[in-house]
């Protein structure tokens, strides 16, 4: 399923496209772990009215679940209670959950259909629900930054998040007891990955070296995906933000370019087992000899014009590991002048 904010290349392949609101048009959470041991959380609010009829991602999921019959019947009094205040709603919700055996599994959807209408956002309703049933560790962390212990702590956290669009410190982890956060059965961080163990034991230098031998028709290694300041995901449609910049080039080492009599800035064609893409050449020592690089996030079509090369098209679907992950960082290729 894809819910898109633009007619992306993925959406163009879909049977149905469900238009989703952008981050500027919906409530959405921001959480980054770089503040450890402090826990900072922000609920970003919509700042512009959406055009047309796009919906929050959560509401799209809710409507699909409803049509699929995954939500049990909801009594009218619960809808009414949602508009009478959250304390009244919480009491009515608890009474409903005690009489409806299917309620707990469908709780996010139930909250979206009821409290979501009162709050104007299914995302806000989901956040409220999560805070009411948060684990004890979250409450302990919240008390360390000044919140008061008690049955209303979840509601207090929710209200503070609403009152502070810039975000708040919702907690602080005890750095002297951080291993308590490890949830494995033995309380340890286990480095062993059973699915990889047999492969690890079978590693043999000669076999690995042989696997790195490139076929004659593909003498270069393509790293399909380089993150730079001028690339973005495919939701960034209008290329005007990169106007005047040199973007989406094939990076090649100077020695390789000299051996092939290539000039910086010329058009070249990169061919792999999957297909070909034409792209501007950039000669740079940031690329190793025998190694070429294309940034990801390009090859988008905007107003009928294609901008850059879609590097994803150069990795064949069978070029993947045993778990199905595409091997984007090691794609045999050849490079030719256009």
Distance between the termini: 38 Å
Q: Tell me the strand order in the biggest sheet.
A: 7-9-8-13-6-10
Helicity range of the residues? Answer: 25-40%
Q: Please tell me the total number of domains.
A: 2
Shape: globular
Strand element count:
13
Bin the strand percentage.
15-25%
Write structural notes for this entry.
The structure is a single chain. The chain has helices at residues 9-12, 57-67, 76-82, 86-99, 107-113, 115-119, 122-132, 136-144, 153-163, 194-201, 205-211, 254-259; strands at 3-4, 18-19, 28-31, 38-44, 168-172, 220-224, 249-252, 267-271, 276-283, 291-294, 300-302, 305-307, 331-337. The protein is of the alpha/beta class and 338 residues long. It folds into two domains: 3-180, no CATH class; 214-337, Barwin-like endoglucanases. The longest helix has 14 residues, at 86-99. The protein is globular, with a radius of gyration of 26 Å.
Write a compact overview of the structure shown.
With 338 residues, the chain is an alpha/beta fold. It is 30% helix and 17% strand. It has helices spanning 9-12, 57-67, 76-82, 86-99, 107-113, 115-119, 122-132, 136-144, 153-163, 194-201, 205-211, 254-259; strands at 3-4, 18-19, 28-31, 38-44, 168-172, 220-224, 249-252, 267-271, 276-283, 291-294, 300-302, 305-307, 331-337.
């Amino acid at each position: 399923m894809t819910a898109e904010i633009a007619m992306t290349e993925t959406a163009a392949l879909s049977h149905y496209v469900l238009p989703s609101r952008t981050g500027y048009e919906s409530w959405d959470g921001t959480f980054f772990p770089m503040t450890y041991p402090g826990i900072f959380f922000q609920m970003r609010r919509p700042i512009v009215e959406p055009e047309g009829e796009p919906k929050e991602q959560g509401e799209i999921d809710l409507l699909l679940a409803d049509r699929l019959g995954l939500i049990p019947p909801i009594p009218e009094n619960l809808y009414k209670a949602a508009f009478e205040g959250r304390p009244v709603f919480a009491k009515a919700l608890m009474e409903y959950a005690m009489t409806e055996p299917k309620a707990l599994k469908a709780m996010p959807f139930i909250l979206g259909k009821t409290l979501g209408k009162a709050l104007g956002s299914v995302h806000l309703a989901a956040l409220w629900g999560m805070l009411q049933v948060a684990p004890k560790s979250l409450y302990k962390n919240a008390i360390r930054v000044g919140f008061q212990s008690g049955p209303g702590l979840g509601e207090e956290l929710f209200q503070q998040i609403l009152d502070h669009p810039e975000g708040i410190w919702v907690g602080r982890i005890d750095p002297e007891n951080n291993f308590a956060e490890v949830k494995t059965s033995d309380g340890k961080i286990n480095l062993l990955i059973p699915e990889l163990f047999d492969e690890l034991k079978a590693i043999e230098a000669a076999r690995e070296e042989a696997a790195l031998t490139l076929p004659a028709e593909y003498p270069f290694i393509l790293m399909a995906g380089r993150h730079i300041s001028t690339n973005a995901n495919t939701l960034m449609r209008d290329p005007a933000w990169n106007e005047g910049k040199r973007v989406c080039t094939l990076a090649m080492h100077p020695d390789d370019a000299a051996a092939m009599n290539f000039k910086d800035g010329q058009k070249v064609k990169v061919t792999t087992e999957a297909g070909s893409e034409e792209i501007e050449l950039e000669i740079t020592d940031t690329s190793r000899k025998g190694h070429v690089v294309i940034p990801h996030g390009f090859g988008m079509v905007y107003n009928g014009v294609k901008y850059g090369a879609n590097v994803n098209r150069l990795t064949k679907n069978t070029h993947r590991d045993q778990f199905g992950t595409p091997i984007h960082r090691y794609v045999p290729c050849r490079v030719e002048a256009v």
